[in-house]
Amino acid sequence: MAEKFNACVAAVKEAENQELLDLCARHLYEMAADIIMCHLLMQNAAKAPELFGKSLRVYVNLAEAEVEKHATLLGKLNAEQLDNYRQQ
Fold it and tell me: Cα–Cα–Cα angle for 33, 15, 19, nearest 5°?
């Protein structure tokens, strides 16, 4: 998940377009939040697997799907498409 996140961040930065970054920011934020939550749950599950093990497995499944969703969208967005997202 972290590799997908880093690839998306790099692609958005590489475009050097503030408007594109603004459009992508929320998706990047949600990806980062899911990755951080998985990390925190892993730490807790390592200390108390009986309390956090199942939660970790469930959340990782959800987080992987969410990160994939955002990565797919961000992989398709580019500066040429920005006009489609503007309100007239």
Answer: 70
Long-range contacts, stretch 22-26, CB < 8 angstroms, 24+ apart: 23/77, 23/82, 23/85, 24/74, 24/77
Query: 57: alpha, beta or left, given left = phi > 0 and alpha = psi -120 to 50?
Result: alpha
Asked whether the beta carbons of 52 and 45 are under 8 A apart, the reply is yes
Is pTM beyond 0.85 here?
Answer: yes
What is the per-residue pLDDT across 32-71, written as a single tens digit (0 to 9) for each?
A: 999 999 999 999 999 999 999 999 999 999 999 999 999 9
* Contact (CB, 8 A) for 67 and 32: no
